[in-house]
Specification:
This protein is mostly helical and 106 residues long. It has a domain of 65 residues. The protein contains 4 helices and 2 strands, in the order H-E-H-H-E-H. Strands 1-2 form a two-stranded parallel ribbon.
């Protein structure tokens, strides 16, 4: 019991500032979306202004949408591979990990 007490005090001291943060921070209803210019897409690099917007959004909301950052061809290849992998896992029936087993909650 003596070991548990310091851990409980530490947990209380950490939870108090965290709960205050969650109470005072208003999350956005919609994610920030950035539309890179053709030059940014060609160079593979955001302008300092767009980069700052992205970083601020990540810090505040945990995500940012960068439009047209990935080509449709790359997304099509990724989708094809993911569908193939999903079907392979699904066909394993009871030996399948994660999502396809009864009782798996996510």
């Amino acid at each position: 019991m003596q070991r548990i007490q310091p851990a409980m005090r530490l947990a209380k001291s950490l939870s108090s500032p965290l709960s205050r943060l969650s109470q005072t921070r208003q999350l956005s209803s919609y994610p920030t979306s950035i539309s890179p210019s053709p030059a940014e897409i060609r160079n593979g690099q955001l302008t300092p202004q767009n980069l700052e917007t992205a970083i601020r959004s990540l810090h505040h909301d945990g995500l940012v949408v960068v439009e047209n950052a990935v080509s449709h061809e790359a997304l099509d290849r990724l989708n094809e591979k993911m569908v193939h992998d999903a079907r392979t896992l699904q066909n394993k029936k009871d030996d399948s990990p994660y999502n396809y087993n009864p009782g798996n909650i996510q």
